[in-house]
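### Sample
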Amino acid sequence: MSSENGPVTAVIDSLPYYDNDLERDPSLKERAEKLIQKELGKEVQSLHPRVPPPPTLFANSPLLQQEMARVETHQPMPQIDTFRYQLPGPTNTPATEEDWEAALKNAQAQLEHQRLRHMNFALLQQYGSNAWRIHNFLLEQTAKNLEKAVEDLKQLTVEVNRERKNFQTGVGTQLNTLETRWTELISSVLQIEMANVALEGEIDRLNKREVELSNL
């Protein structure tokens, strides 16, 4: 809705906590329920502007994204490649010096890999439990904060609805008083009009009686 001076805010004249039109008219209530079910059955095309967009998981890790896609499609996990942990010797017979050097380098690489794994396991055993406890503590605090925010929002909603109900109930009482007063005034006006009609009839009768007496 708009005008020459700019947009005009639509005023909705409704007191849902006071009006009981649906209770007085069952057919109106049935139509309203059908409209509600129709709206609920519609597919939501757009979310509320305050609803954040869905998060992108593992945006900086393509490997984890690939693993997440595998889990979502219920694909089996690929078997572990154990070849990297083996120490194969030269395959050529007879083996050359280059073949033995390649096998030796592979063994050294495997040894270094196992050393790093052992170091990581040692660090994990020493610091991992505390890091995990701290992580769980932070998650619990975050969950408690979110639960408190939800409870505060629910309480605020209850208070807003209570204020609306009290306000509308008070306005409804005033409307009842004004409606009763309006009915009384209308009744008084009708009584006055009926009295005026009766008085005019009496005046006409007296005027006619006066004319009759003057003609005698």
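The chain has one domain: 2-39+60-207. This sample (Breast carcinoma amplified sequence 2) is used throughout the tutorial notebook.
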